Amino acid sequence: xxxxVESGGGLVQPGSSLRLACLVSGFTLEHYAIGWFRQAxxxxxxxxxxxxxxxxxxxxxxxxxxxxxxxxxxxxxxxYLQMNNLKPEDTAVYYCGRKRGTAxxxxxxxxxxxxxxxxxxxxx
Length: 124
Known about the structure:
Largest sheet: 7 strands, mixed
Shape: globular
């Protein structure tokens, strides 16, 4: 049974950092790319970052470049999203999803499994 479980969200002040984790099970992590998406109230889900199944190639949305870093630990079946210098506009529910390949990574409809999401709130 394929499962993705996000954790690490919370309430933080602007300028703070958080590290989200996506623990996967039921498949071999190295065979799939894992992406992070977020959805703020009243907005569409948007792609934040993706890391490939092999070679650790990564992609970032413009809003994430320079502040967020995606990484993976295959031994722990976990993909991380390190988020630094958080801003109020980063407030959203963050989801991880599984995808074959890296093409069109920001299109959510190309992902076949998703986690339940973790809330990130950035507020003073």
